[in-house]
Amino acid sequence: MYQHLKIQLEDIKSATNNFSNPYSPCDGNPRFIRYVAELDHFDREKPSSVGTESEVKLLRRHNTVAIKRLLSQDHERDQQVFFNNMEMLASFQHPNIISLLGFCVEGSELILVFEKNPNKHHMLLYSSLQNDNCREYTKTGLLKRESDVYSFGVVWFELLCGKKAAGPIYLDYGGHQTHVARSSFASGTLESMIDPVIIYPNKDSLDTYTEIAYKCVAETQDESRP
């Protein structure tokens, strides 16, 4: 499956001048480096093939693409999570969402290739390949609906507290905001973490918001998550 999306590492290296001049780190995750290059890829707009039955060739096109290269730390685990994410990204087809055009898994390289279109949104799996987002996900490498619910809760707590989920201020709590927020909610002291700008306007709405966020980051993937 997804063999039509495979892109040779040699082609990607040629397009990026052997990974020189990276465009930027991306998605707030320093393990991903982004490049912009001209590259041949599978044509999603014209997915039909040409040739005889014994010699089928998928239609390809040349285009400017965004290339995301993962700096793998644990290749075996990262590769499993990479494929889980890639399969989910490949399934998204929407006119307002940037499409996955291809991937490359060769040696230690784990690379995703997306269309480059500033007028579309990038469908980001927030939990993808980040150690602190979801314990069960990083342990099993399995992407479930509950994993995305957890990630949604992480984002909600970031908005609620006005701070990024991971940072040095949380080193005494496993390095992650979620652990502190979960404990503070359970003990009734979460208000001390909330951004003062949003704490007072509507207390009832705030209570509902924090309860939903807390349920999203429940420690286990069971009925306790929305």
Automatic annotation (TrEMBL):
Gene3D superfamilies assigned to the protein according to its UniProt record, in alphabetical order: Phosphorylase Kinase, domain 1, Transferase(Phosphotransferase) domain 1
SMART domains for the chain: S_TKc
What GO molecular function annotation could you give as one example from this UniProt entry? Answer: ATP binding
- GO CC list: plasma membrane; plasmodesma
All copies of the Protein kinase domain together span 42-217
Pfam families named among the record's database cross-references: PK_Tyr_Ser-Thr
What highest taxon heads this organism's lineage? Eukaryota
Question: Where in this chain does the entry annotate a coiled-coil region?
Answer: none
PANTHER family per UniProt: OS07G0166700 PROTEIN, VASCULAR ENDOTHELIAL GROWTH FACTOR RECEPTOR 2 (VEGFR2)-RELATED
Q: By what name is this protein known?
A: Protein kinase domain-containing protein
